[in-house]
# Entry
Amino acid sequence: MNTRIGRQTVKIENPPIILNAASIAGVKEGQGPLKDSFDKILTDDTLGEKSWEKSESTLQRQTALLALEKAQLKQSDIDYILAGDLLNQCVGAHYSVRDLDIPFLGLYGACSTMTESMSIGSMLIGGGGAQYVMCLTSSHFCSSERQFRNPLEYGGQRTPSAQWTVTGAGCAVLAASGAGPRITHVTTGKVIDKGVTDISNMGAAMAPAAIDTLLAHFNETGIKPEEYDMILTGDLGVIGSDILTELMLKEGFDIRKNHRDCGKLIFDIEAQDVHAGGSGCGCCGSVFCGYIFNELKKHNLSKILVMATGALMNPMTVEQGESIPAIAHAITIEN
Amino acid sequence: MNTRIGRQTVKIENPPIILNAASIAGVKEGQGPLKDSFDKILTDDTLGEKSWEKSESTLQRQTALLALEKAQLKQSDIDYILAGDLLNQCVGAHYSVRDLDIPFLGLYGACSTMTESMSIGSMLIGGGGAQYVMCLTSSHFCSSERQFRNPLEYGGQRTPSAQWTVTGAGCAVLAASGAGPRITHVTTGKVIDKGVTDISNMGAAMAPAAIDTLLAHFNETGIKPEEYDMILTGDLGVIGSDILTELMLKEGFDIRKNHRDCGKLIFDIEAQDVHAGGSGCGCCGSVFCGYIFNELKKHNLSKILVMATGALMNPMTVEQGESIPAIAHAITIEN
# Structure
């Protein structure tokens, strides 16, 4: 049963387990600091496909199948697969799951999709209607560049505030019972738009949404920041992370010691020349389902907050003069 | 509490009420057979905005606010708003809800979004974590034509199998208690792809998904087709509806008498020159939240199945030679 304990937060009385998780990372991501944590590192970011969109679908499907294998479950065991990605009409997910014999619920949360899917998945299990739920997301540098910015062949120069879309995917398998870290609280974000219009500065656009959700989470749960071994954001990157920690401090919450950001963890920012850090649904997806899940399993982390953030514009709305709405969804994981 | 009664179906033990619903329709839709059922008919499909995308967002926001007003609720009463649309990165929904002070979960189910949102909304309420949930979707003929086919100015000729994207929006307010029709069962679809590649024949692409979900629903619930006063599909249109009823008959289920399709109901197909009928998220959205909800309130319908269908491709994947995956989500509503 799920119990609402505040405007945005639900406590899950019978918290679902993260039974297992799988992550696959691209070539560049596999050369970064987290290289030992991924289940698989691509040797060819095309995955043998003829378009970047097909590459991303294949990446996502391989990750889903690997997660099933690691969890020692069959497709027929899974009650729902919740998936989404950044591509127009979420085609990364749709083509990845069409060969899977699993009821599907499609999500769009941009780079917040990993925690959006785990939020809904946890509540579906908590509500009694599901035993096993798969939460799946991906991004691919090359499909994202073409769609959101320019085709790679154009060779456009990147601004210093730009982030590098991670080629990677993550899939977590949630279960109603078993052993493993548990998802105890779900804080769902509101769409926040503080007027940022620079499409090359996603961190600044998303930070206000992260702050909004984080304040709601602390206020509604009564959990103190220092209780968390880690407060992990999805892909605020260097700029967004600085905004988050600074403004949270002004609000009276010091998260400087335990805040980490997947977009900063996945790359060696300077050496790998990724400007403001990593981004994309697959950033939180591959980091959470790889490095973080491994640390939870090893009991190096006992209580963490995971909050992926998403920027909810498209290139056309920004060209039409619109600002960038954003969202952040947070989940508490206890070991 | 939600109880799983089959591979794809959940029974909601404490079924949520459809407390109220609002629908707004475009100029052409307001000249069709259902003109008396909409809460509001636009006199100008631009809604005074400078782009079709902004028009769609404004349409969706007006519908959400009208639903709140009809339900006599405040934004602060609503636990979740579940919304999506057809636009790239679901910007119709994101810009419509950014001024609403309501936790948001973004969905992408293409034209299945109305029942996807009501499925998840019902299970969130059934699971105990929510008291009120808004389910919102829209489509706009002009934004869809530009994005999926050609800009209106191009004046492209339409094939006979093409459907006409409805300019319209619907918003249903679900509640944990109160008076009104109840959502008792949720059957979630799988992604089905039977190899249809004609982007101008959405009905044929979506019909196999509708059949798959409908068979699962009948088999898992034990409900017989004739128990339903109406089996309402979203936007299969003329061609998809014929495929559905014919193939269901071969499977042993005669739904010819009680099957209706929102895409056939909303237009006078011949007189309004809409070829194979209406389509779009807003088709099921505006028809369900208008005509059907009114009939439920008047007790002219006592038990119905509502199943919106969605085609999950984008124009690029079809250009890349891919076929069209589709999905259908069904909910049982009892008065």
About this structure: The CA atoms of residues 29 and 246 of chain A lie 28 Å apart. Chain A has a mean pLDDT of 97.
